[in-house]
Amino acid sequence: MKPKDVVSFAGRNITQKKTQSLLTIIGIVIGILAIVSLISLGYGVQNYITEEISKAGASVITVYPSQQITSIAMSKNFNDRDLKAVEDVRGVDVVLYGWFGGTQVTYHDQEYYSSVFATKSSTYQIFFTEAYGYELEKGRWMKDSDKYTCVIGYSLAHDTFDREIDIGDKIEINDKKYKVVGILEQIGNPDDDNSIVIPYEAASEVFDVDDEYNMFMVKIKDGEDVTKVSEDIEDELEDSRGDENFSVLTAEQLAESISSIFSVLTIFLVGVAGISLLVGAVGISNTMHMSILERRKDIGILKALGAENNTILSIFVVEAGFLGLFGGIVGTILGILIAKAIEYVAAISGYGLIRAWISWELIVGVLVFSFVVGILSGYFPARSGAKLNPVDTLRGE
């Protein structure tokens, strides 16, 4: 039997059982759309963050008091001696030091849990305008003489509370009122757009810390070798702290660390979505098994006419593959639409970092994967059908 005849037989079998085939395909569709949308959004966010860090911070080195970024809260914090050690490294231009954490913020009796960064006011202005290009939407930067003032993110000012926050308004942090003197332009990163920056002098009241820092951000001088400066910072901090439990990350290394975290998360979510695909695969296998039982006489006639086992096997395997492929096509289209819809909703909600990553590699890979899943799901039922005795099938046994 020619390949086109095998395809024709398989196609006709699917169209004759429209309802059964449709229900089978739905299982694949659900699994594939979940996988496509999760991969698209996962890698979209990962690529966006990586690009932004690399683009904005080519001359920035970030230093954490732990080798694991996710366990900073349990680490030995930096002190003034560590700060002096970093500032004295050759090639270092500006060191932004401070305490980063989260706390409850109140505005007109509404509460919101926000990220708060307590740092030296003048250094913050220099660092973020020169290294990252941040600008204010309105107001002014904080001054070193300020204490109960703050600069807030765009979303916190305009979207978080029922009533917008304006310059001169006061927000309450730990029972203390802070006057808003500046509002940042929209950055697109929800952490920055919902954050609050306060003078370091207020850190003791908000976080109960004094001359302790859980983050250094280092801007190096133009023309300096980032790698060489980062290695020198490591050496000086090791002498200052007496241990190696800290992280010195260039923009490229920080992007890689964040990418690895997102990759693990994406793989986990795709694994969960794969359960839906497994259910769809079981549906294909069950459909093929029922189809073989219903067409025993057809198999017997084909064998009586000289069809070999491999031909019978091919017909049912191709049919199963088509079910998987059709489900993959529909699932891919729906998955892309869902990912794009989430990106659109996130954009108008101020979460610009949520992007949908769509590529031909993703589309082709998912379609091939769904076709292979269909083939594998239908192989064993098809093999049992190919081994049927033609005499028994024609007798109806």
Give the arrangement of secondary structure elements.
Layout: H1 3-16, H2 18-56, E1 60-64, H3 80-87, E2 92-107, E3 110-119, H4 121-130, E4 136-139, E5 149-152, H5 154-158, E6 170-173, E7 176-184, H6 190-193, E8 196-199, H7 203-206, E9 215-220, H8 226-241, E10 247-250, H9 251-294, H10 296-304, H11 309-348, H12 360-386, H13 390-395
Parallel strand pairs: 3-8, 5-7
Antiparallel strand pairs: 1-9, 1-10, 2-3, 2-6, 2-9, 4-7, 5-8, 6-7
Describe this structure in words.
- Keywords: Cell membrane, Membrane, Transmembrane, Transmembrane helix.
- The chain crosses the membrane at residues 21-45, 261-287, 312-338, 358-380.
- Pfam families: FtsX, MacB_PCD.
- The chain is an alpha+beta fold and 397 residues long.
- It folds into 2 domains: 3-52 and 257-395, no CATH class; 76-244, no CATH class.
- Helices cover 57% and strands 17% of the residues.
- The protein contains 13 helices and 10 strands.
- Strands 2-3-8-5-7-6 form a 6-stranded mixed barrel.
- Strand 2 and strand 3 form a beta hairpin.
- The longest helix is centred in the C-terminal third of the chain and has 44 residues, at 251-294.
- The chain is elongated.
- The model has no long low-confidence stretch (mean pLDDT 80).
